[in-house]
Amino acid sequence: MTPSPLLLVLGAHRSGNSMLSGVMQRLGVLLPGEQIAGDQNNPEGYFEWREVVDLQERLLIDLERWWPSAQGTLPLPEDWFDHSATVEYKLRLRSLLKKESLRQKGIWAFTDPRCCRLLPIWQKLTAELNIPLKLVLVVRDPAEVVRSLIRRDGPITGMNEGRAQRIWWQHNLEVLNVCDDPQRLTLVEFSGWFEQPENQIRQLLLDLPELQPKQAQLDDALAFIKPEHRHGLDQDVVLELAPAVLRLHRRLQRRPLPRRWPSAGSLPLDQEPWPLQEELAADPGSWLALLKKWRPYPAPRAPGSLALPPGEVVLSSCGSSWLDWASHLWLQRLPLNGLAERQLSSATSGPYQLRLQSLRDTGEPELRITLNQELPSVDRAVHWLNHLRVQQWIWDPDPARVLLLRALGFPAWWLDPLTPVNGWLQQDSAVSPRCWGEHLGLAPPPKDHLIVLGAAGSTWDQALAAEEERGRQVEDLQIAYLPGWQDLRCPEPGCALAAAGWLAKACRESARLFFVQSRDHLIDVDLSALEQPAATPLLVEQPLLPEDIRAMHRGETLMALAEDRSPPLCDELFVWSIDTPPRVAVVVSSFNYEKRITTALKSVRDQSLSGLELIVVDDASQDDSAGVIKSWMETQVLEGDHPFVRLLLLRHHQNAGLAVARNTAFEAATSAWCFVLDADNRLLPEAVQACLAVAESGSECPHLAVVHPLVGMEIEGDRLDEQRSLLGGPSWQESGFVEGNIIDAMALVRRSAWRAVGGYTHLAGGWEDYDFWCKLITAGWHGLQCPRLLALYRSHRQAMTFLETGRSQRVLSRRLALRHPWLKLPLAL
Fold this sequence. Notes:
The protein is an alpha/beta fold. The chain starts with 5 loop residues before the first strand and ends in a 10-residue tail after the last helix.
């Protein structure tokens, strides 16, 4: 029985492959596998088989042709078809295609722009499997493609006009050159979906007679086509396309297709070419900037595994020590055959060099291998370079560093934490209870326990003692507690090897490992090299209770804490007022912002509206925030040139969180309206006056609770990942809040509305403002937008949204979905 035909949808990135696949799916074409979900760039979805896309992405990376990079526009290496990464890819792809072809009973399709480069493999495998292959090439105006690529990929990958044109040229021309007969290629013009969608579908059905959709499917396909799907039309980006690109596009529009194609001619250069090796080595001061630039980039893996020779092998470590168990976790992931059979030479090994005993004297020079985990300081750069120059193989778990090393000319490869283990931690020195006892003073890790590594604090210690005294409940998992784990001393590599082996054994056989507030930077990286843990190890923080650990293990704490906290006692650190009643209050909450609070306060002083009361609540800061605020207020009173009629500084006796601090400020205010300001943000001069004017103009709306301005972004240099220029933007509509927050906390809030809904609720991790808006909506209140940019949100790495909220979105989403059932938050599912 002949397998069903496979439609392979080809086209350069951002050419509309997903649009065509979405239409074909609605016309009855089957799309196999788990599909890549939509995002802001493709809201309807990508319609790509994730498993195959991941395989193709990894192959191009290993061939050093990652598509959005400068190297991605180069021809594939001459030996790419027989490269070890290609061989692995072909085996896995063949297996997937064979399995899927047996399942499919009708025409099916796959799309991925990477197929343009890998088309020879698809042709070969489908021929071997007797799968009829039909090729569909999506053609889009290169100007639109270039604009769309720059907008989507420019901030992350450095995509530029020259590179984007080369990508469009390369992906289209390689398909044409590989096709045996381009005349049999089905071409689909992207613009046709928006200019004449009915004709476009009609032509598609003529080209693909296997499709026999019903009228309902045709209607569904037409409804799928929306004008907003057409990105890259912004004419503000002025482009100068290369003549060769324009010629190729014109020829692709001819019917029938011509037999000859234009030569590359003078394709535009990449505006950010790969750095020259000699210049890079001579300028170590530029390395850090390159590392930041390449942070989103992947790096290639080594081609296959290295068989260790029988002679002497020297394993060096840069940036870490062989006295650290974490280094041995990574060492077990090096693709080295025969490592488990080699004995460590304790006499000649040290903190930064392991020597493996020879199996026999071969007379050959020693093999030098390095595990690198550092970018050295400029003053150590020469020493680092000299060391690496004598290494035959270098591995590094950081892809960006690997790219830097390769740009410097070194044989460096990415150390994939999922590489099969090489047996290093299976040798007797790592798994022997005798070695654990002699080196570490530890018995074998208890099986099926929750193992807590690190001191969990006095509250934990007392609770654990009480539990032992009263007896553990039968259904409770038993806890093994090692508070001294971080204090283990490894004076020689063999001891660290034993610690790594013990940890690997514990990870495999325990119910779960918990690391308490330790090695914050290294935990995620180090533990990713562990072999197949029974349950993912967790990093936890004090304060902890044994029931917390058990609940975390069961997954019951994957929801943010929400509670309406009573305000703690507080002190009045500064009070000043005159007899004039205030018109508006500005309420500021502050915690550990002594270096930023003054900017926020100055922005309040500079308001164009007079008659303000300023209420600042310091939430038991550990720095001198309260002192800075008090001194600033005293200066305002002394100098006299300010808009205030009342100044009040309150300080909580204990930290209670952002929500409680805001509630304290609202409670202390006397004005009918309060403008909320966080201590690390600032207002523009007319913020309060303009928002109050909107509030007063809406006086006939008794349920008006909020006036919110547009909020701009002030992005500090340490937030290279932040690309927004505006925070939010939509006006207040209940439907707008259903899938996420659209209004920032910096807004003018009616104090009676705040009181009516019980104020702000504490949420562990953030989103108190989103929850507050939802409470107002549920109670029948609404907001108005002030259509002016009047506040600035300062994006920095000390901000709560960066430190906590960004990492807690899933647990926060689940909590808010429980509190407000009308929400449909994607991460709550």
